[in-house]
Write a structure and sequence with these properties.
288 residues, alpha/beta, Rossmann fold, 8-stranded mixed beta sheet, two-stranded antiparallel ribbon, 10 strands, 18% strand, hydrolase, AB_hydrolase_1, Epox_hydrolase-like, AB_hydrolase_sf
Length: 288
C-alpha cells in the first residue's frame, strides 16, 4: 500500500491510498457523503488488487484529508472537479475508471462537466446521485430524508444517533459488528458543518449525462432507501452509453453487501472500457 498527499483545489491536501499493480488499469474509488476511503476495504483487499491499480481518496472534508470549514470549499463544483483532476495528473493515471458511490456521482459529474472525458476510460455509478435540491425529491428516500438533517446538527448526541440510523439504512441486511464500528468511526470524523455544506448545492446533471460518451456501468440495489432506484433509471434514460446492473435484496452499498459480485462486475467492465477507449494501431499511426 502506498500513501499519497495530493494538492487539490484551493491548496486542500487530499489523502489518497493505492494498492495493487502499478501497471494495471487504474480504478479511482470515490466515496459518498460523510464517508471515507475505508469504505472500500472489500475492494482493495480482494482480487481486484491482483489485476488493477486500486486507488481510493478521502474527499475534502472527510477522513484524513484536510477539512476547511468555509462553505465555498464545498459548494463550488469546480473544486470537486479539480480535486479529481489533481489525483489523475499527480498519479499519472492512464485512462482510469472513475467509480463513484452516492455523492461520488456528483463529484464525477463535476469532473466531466469541467474537464471532459478524454483522460478517462469509463464511469461506474454506484448507488449514485446526479440530482440534488428541489428536483431530487422523487429520487431520494426515507433513509436520506429522515437521517441526514439531524446528522448535520452540532449537538453531539443528536449527531451520533442520526449517523447510527443512517448507517443502518445503508444496507438491506445488517452489517457485521466490525463493519458497523469502523463505519461509525469514520463517519464521526466528518464535521457536521461539512456534511451540511455538501447538501446545500442545487444540482441537475442530466445535461452532463447526455454528453457522456465513455462506457458507463450503473450499479444499484433495488432495496436502496437513500438514493432510490428511480435515480438509476434517470441515469440510464439520459446516458446513451449506460448499462445497468441491478442488485436484488441489496441496499445503498452493493460493494459492501455483495462484494464478490461487485468486484467481478467492476473488473469485467474496467477491462472492456479500457480496450474501447484505447486508440487502435491504425489511429496511432495516423496521428501527426
Amino acid at each position: 500500500m502506498k500513501i499519497h498527499s495530493v494538492q487539490g483545489a484551493g491548496g486542500v491536501k487530499l489523502h489518497v491510498r493505492e494498492w495493487g499493480q502499478p501497471g494495471g488499469i487504474p480504478l479511482l474509488l470515490i466515496h459518498g457523503w460523510s464517508q471515507s476511503l475505508l469504505c472500500w476495504t472489500k475492494q482493495h483487499e480482494g482480487e481486484l488488487q491482483d489485476q488493477f491499480r486500486v486507488v481510493a481518496v478521502d474527499l475534502r472534508g472527510h477522513g484524513m484529508s484536510e477539512a476547511p470549514l468555509e462553505a465555498e470549499q464545498y459548494v463550488d463544483g469546480d473544486k470537486w472537479a479539480d480535486d479529481v483532476a489533481a489525483i489523475i495528473n499527480q498519479l499519472t493515471f492512464d485512462k482510469p475508471i472513475l467509480v463513484g458511490w452516492s455523492y461520488g456521482g456528483f463529484v464525477i459529474s463535476d469532473y466531466v462537466r469541467k474537464h471532459g472525458q478524454n483522460k478517462i476510460a469509463g464511469i461506474n455509478f454506484v448507488g449514485a446521485a446526479v440530482v440534488l435540491g428541489e428536483k431530487a425529491s422523487p429520487f431520494v428516500g426515507p433513509g436520506f430524508q429522515e437521517n441526514v438533517p439531524a446528522a448535520c446538527e452540532a449537538d453531539l448526541p443528536t449527531n451520533i444517533a442520526a449517523i447510527r440510523r443512517f448507517l443502518r439504512a445503508l444496507v438491506a441486511e445488517p452489517m457485521s459488528a466490525d463493519d458497523f464500528e469502523v463505519a461509525l468511526g469514520f463517519n464521526m470524523v466528518v464535521h457536521p458543518q461539512v456534511r451540511a455544506f455538501l447538501i446545500q448545492r442545487e444540482l441537475d446533471f442530466v445535461p452532463i449525462l447526455e454528453s457522456i460518451e465513455v462506457p458507463v456501468l450503473v450499479t444499484h440495489g433495488r432495496s436502496d432507501t437513500l438514493v432510490l432506484p428511480a435515480m438509476a433509471d434517470l441515469i440510464r434514460e439520459h446516458c446513451k452509453t449506460a448499462q445497468t446492473s441491478w442488485y436484488d435484496g441489496v441496499g445503498h452499498a452493493p460493494f459492501l453487501e455483495e462484494p464478490e459480485r461487485f468486484n467481478r462486475e467492476l473488473a469485467r467492465f474496467a477491462r472492456k472500457a479500457h480496450i474501447l477507449r484505447r486508440p487502435s494501431k491504425d489511429q496511432t499511426a495516423t496521428r501527426p
